[in-house]
Amino acid sequence: MSLRQFLKELGCIAGGTALLAATPWLKSCTPEKLSEAAAGGGVARIGLIGTGSRGQYHIHNLLKVPFARIVALCDDYPVNLEAAAALVPDAKRYTDYRRLLEDPEVDGVIIATPLGLHAQMTLDSLSAGKHTFCEKAMALTMDECKAVYDAYRQSDRALYYCMQRMYDPKYVKAFQMIGSGLIGDVVGMRCHWFRNADWRRPVPSPELERRINWRLYRESSAGLMTELASHQLEVCTIVTGKMPTQVAGFGDIVYWKDGREVYDSVSLTYRFEDGRNITYESLISNKFNGMEEQILGKLGTMDLSKGVYYFEEDDTTYGVRRLLDQLKTGVFAAVPTAGPSWRPELRESHVPHAVMEKSTGWVSGESMIGASNDGSLDIVEAFCQSCLTGEQAENVVEEAYCATILCLMGNLAMDEKRVVTLPDAYKIPYMKF
Amino acid sequence: MSGSPSHAFYPDRALFHGVVPHVMGTKLEALLLGAPERESLSLWERWCAEAQRLDAMLDRFDASSEVSRLNAASDSGEILPSRELLAMIRVCEDFRVRTRGLFDITRGTCGEGLQIGAGGSVSLNGGSLDFGGFAKGYFLQECKRMLAEAGIGTAYVDFGGSSILALGHHPFGESWRIRVTHPFSGRVLQDVDLVDQSLSTSGNRPSYRDHIVDPRTGRTVSALRIVTVLTADPLEAEILSTAAMIAEGEELAFLKKNFELSEINRFDV
After folding, report:
1. Which domains, from first to last, does chain A contain?
2. Chain A closest-CA separation from residue B124 CA (Å)
3. Residue A344 pLDDT
4. For B172-193, b where at least 16 C-beta lie within 10 A, e where not — what string?
């Protein structure tokens, strides 16, 4: 199910508007507003900076947006620029992003470059009066994050970060379900992202190593935290509405000792002021546990990445509940017994309940580029609409800021092997503690 | 899930569904068919009250229960139970004798059991009372009696998933069919068809062992096994399922022979 379809259905149910209030960033991309954008005849003219794999992924998505047109491409790596140009032959080509920003034919800019370039390019893009969409995370340092946030506050341009979970229907619905009390009070969070791959890309020539494998080097990357954890920590701040203030953890290069500088294994605990914790792990030499974001509630657990939830006490497996279903539907079949008497502490396996009745696609977390149906198309579409209307999606920048700060705090904690407390200098009014 | 009872009525099927999420350490759930809502609800409310009354009376972990008070006083010699509790003790003693001590509500007497005096006083021989293997069956016996009084002939009462009273039959089948599965693999061990009968199951799960104590030795039964007992009397089913879990060697054959109206099945898994 697309986000548009989901929001359309939401608009048709009682209380749908109230549910939308729990995810206010979606108010700028309701089906009505998107239809207006398409019917108005306006076209969002998009310039793309960074035409590597993620940039090309955005091109494929942009080509599906009826009111968007890619008018400019920029990359200083000719191979990628050519590949992108093959997808959009009519777009102008630039090798210096500043020249693209000077192009008056460009309404909005999408930045899909290495993390170390995000801050400066975003600042320049806003200064150039462009609506701006940047890949996550926000920036390589906390100072850069603050500079971008401050510039955004001063700007009248729309700014988006590609935190696609905020636009993925199964996450959106899960946020709403958690907000409505389905799993009770949130008492803790467990997130992890495991892969078994070296995170490398083939390098045609040795001098390109640091440019192509930018994720592996500190000058351009903050490693697993910004590339993977940022999405998952953002989920935690959204469902709690709060910002952790402390973090401790360990990070090491455990397996991929190939000259990389960023950790291939991280394990951290984030602590909220009310005592709740986020337990976070990521490892790229074992994928058994996959990717999960578990929100632990007093009454149940929501696993957002899988789009399922479980109740602590669940009567759906027992005989009478099955019998009841049989009697309602005119079916006769055997029903199971419990063996020994059922006791609350005996539960061995929980029954998953789907967040969405209709599948939205399973995201394994193994892709380094992006999965289908993960909200990336929807957030790009929302951005294109903002290019036409100037409407800023609520909370998107703030959540990206919070998530990135948390990632960078985590790296600091691991680098210095100490408990890191959120410095006052990086607190923003949006944060609740 | 809240701890308070709840119910629903489906008029097109004349189907009443009631749930007590937590009573006597487990869950009570029932389906009553064919009776008007008011009659079903009235019966259900009496059941809820009865289950809670028995829980308050028999729970040995509740310091205010009659059983706890008697257990606390047992060291001082003879205890004097209420008339109702004494009647229960007499029933249990009868089953203890008939099962050759495999079923015994006393703990810590090493099979000595208890003595009932002429005036209704009881001596526990230094042990204590535990109605864990009795209470659900006793309650289901009460349910069966009240169903008969109310003229409701089709009902399915599930107490903790392990003690079931099934009257009449499934409206779309000729029985109430219950499936017993292997605790590890989920493989089907047995399908049991119940018509006006009770089924009690007892067993050890991988994660829940050692909860049944052999009263003669004080040792827990650790064997991975499942027992099912099918019989007309819910209390007899309840008692025999525990006894058959404990039985070793010839004792199982003895039980089957001595309670020939009950169908006892044991699966050593």
Report:
1. 3-166+374-396 (3.40.50.720), 183-367+403-426 (3.30.360.10)
2. 27
3. 52
4. eeebbbbbbbebeeeeebbebb
